[in-house]
């Protein structure tokens, strides 16, 4: 009974890998260029991003975050207040009357 029990178990094991290979063969035959280049670049890409991701992306993200926080602490607010009063507007207004002042002064003096 041992022999017959082993016999059916042995064919079951190889049967599993056989269907997997069979399904792979038709895919490769149908798209030999797609699966071949996709598998090759996939492996090197996964290996490179794994070791680089934890070191490169983490480092640049940390230094970029600190500078962004100190920038919006409200330093651009000081320049905004001076704009509100609009100090250049007052001097502009007197500029116009200043020109007329000398004209009236000259006419008054002449008169």
UniProtKB/TrEMBL annotation:
It holds the Pfam family Amelogenin. PANTHER family: AMELOGENIN, X ISOFORM, AMELOGENIN, Y ISOFORM. One of its GO terms (molecular function) is structural constituent of tooth enamel. SMART domains: Amelogenin. GO terms for biological process: enamel mineralization. Keywords: Biomineralization, Extracellular matrix, Secreted. Signal peptide: none annotated. Residues 63-88 have a biased composition (Pro residues). Belongs to the amelogenin family. This is Amelogenin. Residues 1-88 are annotated as: Disordered. It is found in: Secreted, Extracellular space, Extracellular matrix. Residues 1-19, 31-62 have a biased composition (Low complexity). The lineage of its organism: Eukaryota, Metazoa, Chordata, Craniata, Vertebrata.
């Amino acid at each position: 009974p041992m022999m017959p029990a082993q016999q059916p178990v042995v064919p079951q094991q190889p049967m599993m890998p056989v269907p997997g290979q069979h399904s792979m063969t038709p895919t490769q035959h149908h798209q030999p260029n797609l699966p071949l280049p996709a598998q090759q670049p996939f492996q090197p890409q996964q290996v490179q991003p794994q070791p680089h991701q934890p070191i490169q992306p983490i480092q640049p993200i940390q230094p970029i975050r600190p500078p962004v926080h100190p920038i919006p602490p409200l330093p651009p607010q000081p320049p905004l207040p001076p704009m509100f009063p609009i100090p250049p507007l007052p001097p502009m207004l007197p500029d116009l009357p200043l020109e007329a002042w000398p004209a009236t002064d000259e006419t008054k003096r002449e008169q």
